[in-house]
Model the fold of this input.
Amino acid sequence: MKLQQLRYIWEVAHHDLNVSATAQSLFTSQPGISKQIRLLEDELGVEVFARSGKHLTRITPAGERIITTAGEILRKCESIKQIAQEFSDEKKGTLTIATTHTQARYALPSVIGAFIKQYPDVALHMHQGTPMQIAEMAADGTVDFAIATEALDLFGDLVMMPCYRWNRCVIVPKGHPLASVGKLTLEALAEHPLVTYVFGFTGRSKLDEAFSRRGLMPRVVFTAADADVIKTYVRLGLGVGIVARMAVDDSVDSDLVVLDASELFEASVTKIGFRRGTFLRGFMYDFVQKFAPHLTRQAIENAMQCHNRTEVDALFDGLELPTY
Done:
């Protein structure tokens, strides 16, 4: 059994059983991958993949468990490389992050700018996706860190630590009826068509819960994952926008009226996390602390000692988080 063979079955499984696409991503040949998978199956005495002719059709039950274990072995090998790199050159390496558009566009630019200035020899890569995609990328080792607000129950296998609280605001064009209301209410919002985030993105669940508690049915006419897109359609008069307050720049968005909605919706908490058992290099600790200053190296190491999310949450319970 070779590590290369484990890498091949892992990559094929994560390329929808497409051996050709896997070969392209690994810069090798399709026949070479197929041959190595067959050799591994012959050695193990079981099929990892079921086939129809030359095509892989599904992962066998045995294959599911073998691939899961292969992933764990490959991650351990990556940790060994990280340890060696930390001692050979502590300021050189790679850092990969998965997050949503809102975090990438509004929360991370200054952090990444400062990080790159301090660590010019660390290659930093960012992946954007849905909370489910982010969780999967972190769990399978595609990325080092996951940064998310929604669907945190998907991140049960990760050490997720709180970074900051944030809330929403309502945006309308100048002259809109809501621009002159004395006190904004959910009832007033429910009377207008709304433009906001796709469900599962950027605290959307808090919005839906607030209306539901009041027995109101909001009329959401347009949704998007990108706050800039939402603002565009508000400008077109499609509806009243509800976005993260951090996504509104008072100078750039001066043509819009911004209404505080912090009393209408419960605040959301953005978290950052990584796989349990991951070896964090020095620059990784520094990145986390740049993003959330209260997450010191000691705080992160304390979180690593926790056995589950409940223990991690208890560790940070009562912590006064920054609010945006």
About this structure: The chain is about 45% helix and 20% strand. The radius of gyration is 23 Å. The CA atoms of residues 58 and 212 lie 42 Å apart.
